[in-house]
Amino acid sequence: MNSDAIALIIAIFGGLLLILACQRLLRARFFAAGGTALMGFLLLACAGLFFVVSLNMHTYARLTYERPVAEIVFEGRGPQSYRATLTEMPGGEMQIFMLAGDEWQLDARVLKWKGWANLLGLDAQYRLERVGGRYRDIEQERHATRTVYALSENPGIDLWQVSTEHPRWLPFVDAVYGSATYMPMADGARYQVSITQSGLIARPLNPAADAVAKMKMVGDE
């Protein structure tokens, strides 16, 4: 059962209690009508709260095992300038960005639930957050043109912010954390990004990406 259905069921019970309260009011059972109406309003308020929380949850996808979440392809447009085509998976939504720098970086948010919440069907959830360019040289990173783009909206109640600032309010949340992966940009390079329980992983998909990725590994050593 999804969260929207749960919110609807709670709202229906709340509505039924309000109808019952009206019937008791017509019979001059004022005390009983007041108590029933109060319970009805409380249930409707809970349903509304559940709905705005689930609205935010819809921006996340379920994470039960390693799965590909995006492919990104680059076209060189000048010194340290690339046209990036990002395709989100499995939906196939495509977005195009102009990135400046030597490397690209993709960020995601991850929500993990406590064991009893998992038993209720709440798997870990993830959401791609933003993509941007970065420079290898620290001075360039501080002063050169920065390019970064948001990949998702944030409707409803922001579970990430609430769980970070008020963890006691969401006892079913086990952990919230950010994850990022970055790789070199090159003309014609194509990468696949996957997500696991431990975070994002980027892998080269063609020789152009493989060549610059190996150069990065040598440079890191």
Topology of helices and strands:
Elements (H helix, E strand, L loop, with lengths): L2 H24 L3 H28 L3 E3 L3 E12 L2 E8 L5 E7 L2 E11 L1 H5 L4 E11 L3 H6 L4 E3 L8 H7 L7 E12 L5 E7 L2 E6 L2 H14 L1
Antiparallel strand pairs: 1-6, 2-3, 2-9, 3-4, 5-6, 5-8, 6-7, 9-10
Helix pairs in contact: 1-2
Quick structural overview:
This protein is elongated. The chain has 221 residues and is of the alpha+beta class. It has helices spanning 3-26, 30-57, 115-119, 138-143, 159-165, 207-220; strands at residues 61-63, 67-78, 81-88, 94-100, 103-113, 124-134, 148-150, 173-184, 190-196, 199-204.
Can you tag this structure with a few keywords?
6 helices; alpha+beta; five-stranded antiparallel β-sheet; 221 residues
What would you note in describing this structure?
The chain is of the alpha+beta class and 221 residues long. It has helices spanning 3-26, 30-57, 115-119, 138-143, 159-165, 207-220; strands spanning 61-63, 67-78, 81-88, 94-100, 103-113, 124-134, 148-150, 173-184, 190-196, 199-204. The protein has two domains: 3-57; 62-220, no CATH class. The strands form two sheets. Strands 1, 5, 6, 7 and 8 form a five-stranded antiparallel beta sheet that branches. The protein has a five-stranded antiparallel beta sheet with strand order 4-3-2-9-10. Helix 1 runs antiparallel to helix 2. The radius of gyration is 24 Å and the shape is elongated.
